[in-house]
Amino acid sequence: MTETRFSGQTAIITGGESGIGRSTAVLMAEWGAKVYLTDIRQLPENTARYQELGISRSTGDVREEAVLQQLVDRAVAETGRLDLLVNNAGVGMVKPVTEVTEEDWDFCMGVNLKGAFFGCKHAIRQMLKGDGGSIVNVASNAGLLPRAHDPLYSTSKQAVVGMTKSLALCHAKDRIRINAVCPGPVGETGMMDADIEKADDSDQFIHDVIHASPGAAAWNRMITPEEVAESIAWLCSDAALMVTGTMLAIDGGKSLGVPPAS
What we know:
With 262 residues, the chain is α/β, with parallel strands linked by helices. The protein has two domains: 10-184 and 224-250, NAD(P)-binding Rossmann-like Domain (Rossmann fold), CATH 3.40.50.720; 189-222, no CATH class. 45% of the residues lie in helices and 14% in strands. It has helices at residues 19-30, 47-53, 65-79, 102-127, 151-171, 190-198, 202-211, 214-219, 225-236, and strands at residues 10-14, 34-39, 56-59, 84-87, 133-138, 176-183, 247-250. Strands 3-2-1-4-5-6-7 form a seven-stranded parallel β-sheet, with helices on both faces. Strand 1 (10-14), helix 1 and strand 2 (34-39) form a beta-alpha-beta unit. Helix 4 (102-127) runs parallel beside helix 5 (151-171). It is globular and about 50 Å long.
């Protein structure tokens, strides 16, 4: 039986060419949504599948508010509505605070926080004209539990968590639900692939990443983008109609605290 839970709905996804964004775009389109996505670049390997699913693609930098406004305006002009937004675009930043430059700050906070904030702004404007909608911000377990090795990234994701709660509280009365997922460690993403490539010993790095999460260690693998996409889709669906302001940790228990010795 074909899944149709998003039939007739319009969805926007940022960072939709790879990793969690790509998996979410495909899943939502398979479930009936008309999907519009943007990313900093388009990957040729997605072309055939995206055309098959009727996914509309554009390129743009989410640090520019105009890119997000134009994306929302286009989706509404072509479909007459906006139901779902997934603020997925994100970048990592592994540096001690003593080495973080102003340029690093502007880049990391611009993509991770500014892009999500202005995505919400323009989506909410449209959702207020209809019967509400659902927004999911992709944060990180670093938004729940600060990490020593990437203080700037952790700050950006904790800010996304705070923003999600604030906007959820503001707009619950408008039938606009705003939640966040807090994943990690997720494999097969641009961010993880870049970290693996930079590691002196990639095998040891992968082992350490997996074993920092008790659940990932138990299964001896990273979380998949598809697993995160399924959670995003649930939060966007009517099955989660009374869920708003929630931070859903998809991290194998990594953000719970210090695990028992193995």
